[in-house]
Write a structure and sequence with these properties.
6-stranded mixed sheet, alpha+beta, 13 strands, 5 helices, flat, 3-stranded antiparallel sheet
Length: 278
């Protein structure tokens, strides 16, 4: 005797895990691209110091203050390169007969969380690693040498006179595991709730420590020490919309367009330290 068992579909969706973006802690929005495709930033040189000629101009100088220097004004141009989009449709009956689990608004939120945010993060982190002012040759990262490698990085930022406050140490889960095995590293895990919400897992040597998925950083990523002052990460356009019953579709048409980029300022590049791993 054959018995056909009852099948039930619950009004639930098995969502993929997706990590929220932490790139905003490492970058800034200091420049505006409103009304322009390209932004140019000036870099102005300075003048050297001289011995003041108290008894008169020295060494044939016209002024007692020394040789009069001219200042150079060079520019760095930033043109946003990433103009990305997506579109998909949801049939009206598909939405109705899946207990609303294919609702357009929910699908759009899922698209942003699982596709858009990871792509933007990957691009921003790649630009920071490639254009970091201080890059170290790849080494094998172990529990025995990780602390020394990190301290070497903070020392490099100190010598570059990068700001102390606001530095962030970026690691992957694999490096975090090694960090837990190191006898020299003790993370200060007492952080405010606002910082925990942003993804800070602790503090080390005065730096906030954040952990990002390995899929969003270069394959040889060991760790990065970054100060937000070094990288501008503009989002010029973020346009998402849901069309109800547009011509030719019985249901919803979802469209999205995102224009973004990341630029490292030449004069501030030394505030980025990238350690590759072998």
């Amino acid at each position: 005797m054959a018995i056909e068992l009852v099948q039930r579909f619950l009004p639930l969706t098995d969502e993929l895990f997706a990590t929220e973006s932490k790139a905003s802690m490492l970058t800034n929005q200091s420049f505006s691209w409103d009304g322009a495709a390209t932004v140019k930033v000036y870099a102005i040189s300075t003048s050297g110091m001289h011995d003041y000629g108290r008894s008169g101009p020295a060494d044939g100088n016209w002024s007692r203050y020394g040789k009069i220097d001219g200042l150079d004004a060079t520019t760095q141009s930033f043109t946003i390169r990433k103009d990305r989009s997506f579109t998909f449709s949801i049939d009206k009956l598909d939405e109705d007969e899946t207990a609303g689990q294919m609702a357009a608004a929910t699908a759009l939120a899922r698209q942003l969380r699982e596709v858009v945010v990871p792509e933007v993060d990957e691009w921003v982190y790649r630009q920071m690693c490639e254009h970091a002012g201080q890059k170290k040759a790849a080494v094998a990262i172990t529990a025995a040498n990780l602390y020394d490698l990190i301290i070497e990085g903070t020392n490099a930022l100190d010598n570059a006179e990068a700001p102390d406050a606001g530095r962030v140490l970026v690691i992957t889960p694999d490096v975090h595991r090694i960090m837990k095995q190191s006898r020299d590293i003790i993370l200060e895990t007492v952080t405010g709730n606002d910082m925990r919400i942003k993804g800070v897992i602790g503090m080390l040597d005065g730096m906030n420590v954040i952990r990002v998925p390995a899929s969003r950083v270069p394959a040889d990523f060991g760790f990065m020490i970054a100060h937000p002052v070094a990288t501008v990460a503009p989002v010029k356009l973020a346009d998402y919309r849901v069309h109800r019953d547009p011509p030719g579709i019985s249901g919803s048409l979802v469209e999205g367009r995102l224009t973004f980029d990341a630029f490292v300022l030449k004069n501030k590049a030394d505030a980025l330290y990238y350690q590759a791993k072998a």
